[in-house]
Each structure stands twice: as structure tokens, then as C-alpha cells.
Amino acid sequence: MTARWLCAAWLLLSATLRAQEIPVGTWRLHPAYQNGVALADAGERVYVAATNGLFSLQKTDRQLATYSKVDGLSGNEFAALAWDAPRQALLIAYTDGNLDFLTEAEIVNLRAIADSRQSDRRVYHLQTAGNLAYVATGFGLVVLNLARREVAETYVRIGPGGSEVAVFASATARDSLFVASSQGLLAASLAPGVNRLDFRNWRRVPTPGGLPRTLAARGGSLFLGVDGRDAYEYDGRSFRALGLTGRSFTHLAAANNLVTFCTGQALFRLGLSGPAQPVSAPLVAAPQQAMADAQGNLWLADAALGLVTNAYGDFQRFTPSGPFSSAAFRLVGLPGQMLALAGGYNRQNYDAAQRTEGFYAFAQGTWRNFNAVDTRLGSVRIPPARDWVDAAYAPATNRVYLASYQNGLLEWDLANDNFRFLNAEVPGLGPSVAAVATDAAGQLWAGAFGLRSGQPSVFRRGGAGSWQGFALPGFNGGNVAELVPDAAGNVWARLAPFVGGGLVVLGPDGRTRRLSAERGQGNLPSANVTCLALDQEGTMWVGTDNGLGLFFGAAGVLDRPTDAARAVLDNRELLRGEAINCLAVDGGNRKWVGTNAGVWLFSADGSEVLARFTAANSPLPSNLVRSVAIVDQTGEVFFATEAGLASYRGLATAPAPDLAGLRIFPNPVPPGYGGLLTIDGLVANARVKITDVAGRLVFETNANGGSATWTGADYRGQRARPGVYLVYASAAEGTPRLVGKFLWMD
Q1: Cβ(606)–Cβ(573) under 8 Å?
Q2: Fewest CB within 10 angstroms: 220, 274, 487, 552, which?
Q3: How far is the C-alpha of 481 from the C-alpha of 327, rounded, in Å?
């Protein structure tokens, strides 16, 4: 009874923890699931692809499931889906031509298209017919053998005279295969003796009004959409206009005697008789694909609302928790949560990105979205503004301050989600605020952009609430892109590179020092400074488009001439020649560095590579990493890439002031668990010992920041036996004391 109860307790606990935390050394992706682009009806389940996420809905219990590179998928930028009923497999096409076959038992990858030498390998459409699948690509039509999961034939140069064509969709009607191509509607016989590799066996079918981009077939009829003109039914002899004039079509589908027409803004359905009818409902917002199931229910992949269906009465929407958009310019770690800001500017000339998606906050496994444009998804409404680019937390007041690159400075009261602009309180600040920070004394700093030389561009709010402005030296002093305080109360200001770049250090007394790429004046690796991070030993790490520079004892930079040092790895300057996009320091003082070629994790002094993550060797969505930030309490490291958000549970957390908040995860440890046991909430440099209940030492280690981990192997390398284990911890010179226990259920 006890064992069964413990297993049941573990299952309940693990289901909760999966939604909230992930084990050390594991990943999760954070797609914007409401941006639906494709769907496939699998009978008991419907699959939906968003631009960078895939999920499904179980029809009976309405349970959602997600699928990603973490689960073994080959990509995260989805183009099309199709269901292979005989083999109960989902065929997934990615924008680069890569293909996956997903079943309950396995994922099989097919890279024939992605690895081909064709210039345009994008997949536009999938169609399954028996044992075959037709893949419409930018270079022709690829035929797959679904039973063998391999390419059977490829139809290229099938245009008139053997000319090249891009194929946008395919359909089989009566005894012919039809393709909507860049040279019009083409058809070839499906008779066994016909060589469809030969362009002479393809004929061009003249269509009314222009070139079709979408096709579907029902019975002996072919349906096609001609953008800007109409949709038509073709019976093999003539075309019948369906009265959908002036529209463009994203997708046509024919299933269960119902033809659906999606225009991106509207949905139409055509039965066996009568004209095409509009489907009007508040939740039919931006349908990209739609189809009917065997019961006549409609299922939609909607670009604004994810999965929409009327299978349960009125139209309802279903999406897993996710950010409002996959766009993220900067990440900021707050206590217990991660903030992703969707604004931005061009890194070359700093022109505004004009983004209105707002920002998103991730905590306890769930995203909350904040903007002024959402009317259907339930986002928290904030004052209208564009291009949120920075944020800072003030622990004394439990408020977050956000910088809008076009609309100023916003205060967010976390206790009640109240918002107010502070612009009127800060004379001279202007609407373009690119940087915000709070220092150790609790003072709020803001950096303005686009001001004239000599004008105050850095502003400080003192304890009484009054603001003081500081002008920075140099022609570029009015273009502050980032602010980072150091331990002495100085603020390091990163300046935009297009009119000089470099850094200015501003002291609390108004003194300044300019740091440039000149020797004796800062010796930066480049004047194009891209990011800053202060580590736990008081060293300021400076990222540039030519590697890293280090200012040891950053707090004293105003009192002595200082040039940047270089970290050295294998007798070479660390990342010399590499464009550094972002930096973060974890609880173990290790350095996370985001570049155009992925993410690096270095030891505290940069002398050792601890990890390297790319899109090829990890679930990272893209190698171009714009921002990296860490939730200190859990050690989860978040990455904002050009293709979306991802996170990785690192080994280090921030040290705790005492052992009162210590946590052991997972607890109990389930049978067959292959991850790391994590002990969080430790004091700095803690010594940790694990013993069995008899007091025999099993394992000991030192904390990494505020965390320690255990693989489950004892000091002899043997896996631990099932049972209860005790955890003892102490400060570096303290006496060990019992701080926790856990159950190992192997």
C-alpha cells in the first residue's frame, strides 16, 4: 500500500512539476502557439502547427499536448502537416524542406529535400493519398513512399518545354494529378504506365482569371483558388465560379463532403449543393487552414487564436500557454519569473522596430501576456506603447520599470498589475527611453536616446522621488543604449555605435570617464559595444562586435586610468573576432555568452568552456541569440533567438542568505529517473553531504552558487539503492546540520 501510495503521489507531483520546473540539464521551448498556420485531423486527435510550435488536442477529454525539438523533432519552424491514417503517423514539413514522421512510438526524420541542392526548398503544401504523399516545394513536386518513408519520385522541370516550376499545391481528381504551379495549373495522368518524370506527359490546363495557388479535390471535381479573382470548381471540362470574388486564398480542403476555403480573414464552406457559405463567428479571426471532421464539425488553424472549433457547441479556441508572440528583443530576470520584451530597434542605425506586442512574463510554468492590442487572448491590458526594450526591478517597492523606445518610462506595480507612465515626472527625458536600471541603493536610473549632445541623457531618481539629469561627454552622449550599475554606485552607460560608440562611466557625484577602443583610453576590443554584465567579483564584462573586454575592479574605474583586459582560452583571446550579442552571469559566477553562432557557457574567469549550445546540437531554436537572462532562484537560463524563446535549467542558482528556503528536486525521485537531483537554496560555498538513514556517507560536494547536484551514484560509482536519504549542509567553515531528506524510488 505504501509503495503504491508513493507512486501515485509521485505521479501527481511530477505532473505538477513538469508544468512548473524542469530538471537540471534539460530544456523547454516557449512557442507562440496562437499563430496557427496548419492542421491535420487524426481522428481522435487534431494537430496544429503554429509558426514555431506544434500541439494537439485530444477530442474526447480536450487535453492539450505539445511537441518540440526537446521531444526529438528536427525543427521548430513549421510549414505544413498531413495525416497518414494507415500508419497512424503525422507528416510534418518544416520551412527548410526537412520532414518528420511522428507516431506514438517514434520520430523518423527524412532530410532528402532539405539536403538537396535545389535553391528553393521551401514546402508549401502536403497531400496524402494511400501509400503516397505529395510534397509541393519551390522546385517541384516530391512524391514520398509512406510505407518506406523515402522519396519515390521527384517531378522537376515539368513546365512547358521542360521549364522549371515552383509547386504551391497538389490534388488528385479522377485519374489525374493536378498541381498549382508558378506556370499555372498542370495535370498528368495517374495511369500506371505514364512516366510523370517526363515533362511531355504534363499538360497545362487554362484557368480563368490567373494562376491558382491552392487546390482541393472532392469526388471527380477539382477546386482551385485564384488570388484576387475567385474560387472555381473544375469538372474536367469547364470551370464554375463560386462567387468568392476579389479574395486571396491561404488554403482549400475537401473532407467529409465539405470543401472549406480560407482567405486569411474569412472562412467559407461548400456542401454538396448550393453556393459557398460564409462561416461567421467572433472566434473565426484569421483562418489559415480549415477542414471538417466526420461529424461535420469545423477545425481551424487560426493565425490569431491557434486552434478554433465548433465541435463542442459554439466556436471555442484551444492553445497551450505561451507568449503572445515569438518576437523577443530582450530578456530580464525578475524574482521567480522571466520577462521577455517584444520591442526593439535596428542594431545598425537604431531605427525603431515599431512592435506593439508588449511584453510577456513566465512564472511557475505559465506565461502571462501584457499589451494594448489583444482583444481575444486574455492579455493584461497596459497603456498603449511601442517597442519595450528594457526593464529593471526595485525590490523595496516590488515594482518593475520598463523602457519604451518610443513612449517613455512605465512603472508596473507587481502587487496589483497597475501601470503608470513616469514621463511627466522626469524633465528632459523625452519619449525614447532605451535603458533602465536600479542600483544597490534602490535608486532608479533611466537612459534616453536621440538627444542632442550636451543635453542630460542619464536620469537618476533619488530616495525623495526627485529626478536629476546628467549629460554625458562626447558627441554621442545623447544616445544611451544600456545602463549597468556597479558596486560603488557608478553607472556604466553603453552608447550607440553609429556615432562613436564606446562607454561612459558616470559616478554618483557626476564625474565621468569615457572608454573607447584606443589604448590608454579603455582599449575596448571594438567601439561597437553590444552588451554589459557585472559579475560577482566586481568585474565588468563588456561584449563587442569583436569579442570580450574585462574591467577588473570596475568600481574603481573613475579613480585610475584603466584599459580593458582580455580573457584567455587556450592561449588565445576569448571569442576574439566573434560578435557578442548578450551576456549573463549565473549564481556560480559563470558567464553565458550569446552570439550569432549559438551560446557559450564559460567558467567564472573565462578560461574553460563548460558548454556550447547551437541549433544543431540542442533544442535552441536558432543560432542567432539576441538576449540571455537567468531566473536566479531556479537557475533556468532563457534565450531569445530570432526564431523564438527557449530555456535550459542550469546547474547554478543564486546563493541564499540562509538555509531556510532549501528545496530538493525531484522529491521523491521516481523509478528510472536519469536526471540530476538538485538541492537549491544553499548559502554561498556551502558544503553538502548526502547520507543514508544509518549515517553512512554516500556523496559530498560543494555548492555551485546556491545549488548542488547529485547524479545518484555513490563515491564508488554505484547507483544508490531505494530508500530515504538525508541532506546535510554547512557554510564553508561551519558545522554541518540536517537540512532535508528525500526518497529515492529506484
Answers
A1: no
A2: 274
A3: 20
